[in-house]
Amino acid sequence: MSTIAGTRPTTSPRSFTTPEAQTPEAPTPDAPTRKDPDRTGYCPFPLSSDARAFGLTTSSMRLRRATVSVRHGRRTGSDTATILLHGAAGSWTTWTPLLAAADASGLGLTDLIIPDLPGWGDSPLPAAGPSRSIEATAAVVAEIACALGYRSWTVIGHSLGGFVALELAASETRSTAFVGLVSATTFSVIDTVRHPVARFAALPGYSALLPVLRAIARAGRSGHGLIRLLHRTGLLRTLAAPLFRRPELLHESIIGALATELRPQAFAVASDLAGTYDPNRWARIECAVHATQGDADIFVAATDAARLRAVIRGFDLVTVPGTGHFAHVEKPYETLLHLLPNGCLSRSGVFPQ
């Protein structure tokens, strides 16, 4: 049984008003930009923590396995939700550039559910035990959707969120209508966690990062202080540069979010859980799975797509040029096209520039 507590309503339960159509309010520092951006540009939107600007309500939901903070709204009366799942070192805010791009394109996403996954954002990390697993996390997502009155969903996941999205589709085959992936961490991450030395070359960036974050996690508060220091001195942008295609053009809000959401313990726990997961479960998936990845993505191996295609019948992949591990932030317009269930693809499998 679930309980919704601490709800901060922003729209009526069955209505949605776009940010542009709402009564004008005083601008907030992190509110999304209002002018029409250059759709061919890199990183056209900052990250925003203003749920109201996107017509969303914030709720704290006490579920069977976890207490989770959820942004949701833009209801249309449909019984099918659009669920967005962030990656490690992220929160619901990682999706705000994609939402802004969709709104600016007249493709505003509706019936949204955007949770902070357990251990990230405003959601606490569950205690060690059965609630800590990829399967349990996917079950939490399904419980959220059902508690909000939905019977089916399209689910889109980035990085770790893509991993969870695949498990959700495998465990809830009748309810999952479509899966969209942005740089989902899959087979190569599983292999690297299981065999860190033998598989180091498959994902050298991830292989090097994981032991560092494990060490920082053991340092406790001192480790968090180190991350804050790296942010204040500007070194965090340099260290995060390999994750992005053009790090010099990143909005400061993105680096600030990394400083806040880079949670070493949660990252280490999530990695360990991935290492114990059986990816053969993905063969149960019955819906289409559309994946995107950047042409400079250091957390996705070249072999991942072929292995996913061999397991998932409805799998296809598009590479988004000029992006790294965060295509939905770096090139949200191009990424959006493929993540829609009826998305537009070029015949070459690459979005035209």
Report on this structure:
- Strand 6, helix 3 and strand 7 form a beta-alpha-beta unit.
- Helix content is 33%, strand content 16%.
- With 353 residues, the protein is α/β, with parallel strands linked by helices.
- The chain has a nine-stranded mixed sheet with strand order 1-2-3-5-4-6-7-8-9, sandwiched between helices.
- 47% of the residues are buried.
- The chain has one domain: 3-Layer(aba) Sandwich (Rossmann fold), CATH 3.40.50.
- The chain has twelve helices and nine strands.
CATH architecture: 3-Layer(aba) Sandwich
Supply the number of structural domains: 1
SSE topology string: EEEEHEHEHEHHHHHHEHEHH
Distance between the termini: 49 Å
Classify the helix fraction into a percent range.
25-40%
CATH class: Alpha Beta
Uncertain spans, ≥5 residues at pLDDT below 50? 8-35, 343-353
The computed structural class is alpha/beta
Shape: globular
Please give the count of helices.
12
- CATH fold type: Rossmann fold
Which range does the strand content fall in? 15-25%
Largest sheet: 9 strands, mixed
Q: Can you say what the CATH homologous superfamily is? A: Alpha/Beta hydrolase fold, catalytic domain
